[in-house]
């Protein structure tokens, strides 16, 4: 199992503040002879519609020296995780959690925006010190 991300607890707390119940920490999937550990699994009851929303959240900090190199790695990981989730838990949506500062700087670049649109990357933008979700981007 991989090491926890620097902002793991901040994202977990932010999700709980937003009404999510953490169901998996991490969310384990064994698919096609590969073990996958997605940082968090969560559920939230939508009372008006009487169903549960289910999400998986992969947390990334983008603290390495090359943000674009980390982005390449994250994109591949995200697509692989989404593929496995589609097969094993198709009701669960995958989100990439990123800090607000990275969203406002690196993810503001046109190239990154085009890639996230092309591959339909769902983003969960969080403020680490306040442990709050700032934005859900579908």
Using brief descriptors, characterize the structure shown.
six-stranded mixed sheet, 138 residues, globular, 33% helix, two-stranded antiparallel sheet, alpha/beta
What does this structure look like?
Helices cover 33% and strands 36% of the residues. The strands form two sheets. Strands 1-4-5-6-7-8 form a six-stranded mixed sheet, sandwiched between helices. A two-stranded antiparallel sheet has the order 2-3. The protein has four helices and eight strands; from the N terminus they run H-E-E-E-E-E-H-E-H-H-E-E. Strand 2 (27-31) and strand 3 (34-38) form a beta hairpin. The mean pLDDT is 92. With 138 residues, it is of the alpha/beta class. The chain starts with 7 loop residues before the first helix and ends with a strand. 28% of the residues are buried.
Short overview:
With 138 residues, the chain is an alpha/beta fold.
Radius of gyration, in Å, reads 15 Å
Relative helix content: 25-40%
Structural class determined from secondary elements? alpha/beta
List the quaternary state of the chains: single chain
Mean pLDDT: 92
The dominant shape is globular
First and last CA, distance: 28 Å
- Spans of 5+ residues with little confidence (pLDDT < 50)? none
- Number of alpha- plus pi-helical segments: 4
Strand percentage lies at 35-45%
Q: Main β-sheet: number of strands, strand sense, barrel status?
A: 6 strands, mixed
What's the SSE pattern?
HEEEEEHEHHEE
């Amino acid at each position: 199992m991989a090491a926890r991300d620097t902002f793991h607890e901040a994202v977990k707390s932010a999700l709980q503040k937003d009404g999510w119940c953490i169901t998996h920490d991490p969310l384990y999937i064994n698919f096609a002879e590969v073990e996958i550990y997605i940082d968090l699994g969560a559920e939230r009851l939508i009372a008006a519609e009487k169903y549960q929303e289910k999400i998986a959240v992969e947390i990334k900090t983008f603290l390495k020296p090359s943000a674009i190199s980390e982005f390449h790695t994250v994109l591949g990981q995200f697509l692989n995780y989404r593929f496995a989730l589609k097969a094993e838990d198709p009701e669960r949506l995958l989100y990439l959690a990123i800090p607000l500062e990275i969203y406002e700087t690196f993810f503001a670049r046109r190239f990154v925006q085009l890639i996230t649109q092309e591959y339909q990357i769902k983003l969960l933008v969080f403020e680490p010190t306040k442990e709050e979700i700032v934005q859900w981007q579908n």
